[in-house]
Amino acid sequence: MYSLVTVGLVLGPILFSVYISPTVQIASVHNVAAQQYVVDTQLFVALSTDTLPTAQARLEHCIADLDVGFRFNDLYLNLSKSKAILLGTRQHLLSFPLSPVLTLPPLQ
Fold first, then answer.
1. How far apart are CA 21 and CA 18, in angstroms?
2. Cα distances (angstroms) measured from residue 18 to each of 8, 9, 56, 73
């Protein structure tokens, strides 16, 4: 079954908003903060070297659940445009592994 919305139709942005509206709720279930912009969502996790494995797992599970929710509405994560950044003081950043790796859901 396909559903199409004509480009330029006022319902397009409204339906898109409805489709992505559960994003913040899904993120909060995983104790991940989310900020949404027009067509961009940022996920935030506070972490330290002690909590890195659990924070990383929370973020990975959150992304996997978001992927399921988006696919339900025929939306797809663009993993090639997804990025992660680690912010902190110079001393704090030096205490982290060189390249923590996130395992993201496979593209289908």
1. 5
2. 17, 15, 28, 10
Query: What is the rounded CA–CA span in Å between residue 39 and residue 32?
Result: 19
* pLDDT 10s digits, 23-74: 889 999 999 999 887 778 889 998 888 888 888 889 889 989 988 888 887 8
Partner residues linked to 34 by β-bridges: 43
Residue whose C-alpha is closest to residue 103's, from 43, 53, 36: 53
In which residue are the tokens 């599970």 written? 61
Least confidently predicted of 5-19, 27-41, 88-102 = 5-19
Count CB atoms within 10 A of the CB of residue 30. Answer: 19
Q: What is the DSSP letter of 74?
A: T
> What pTM did the predictor assign?
0.74
Tokens of 48: 């330290």
Which amino acid is located at 100 in the chain? P
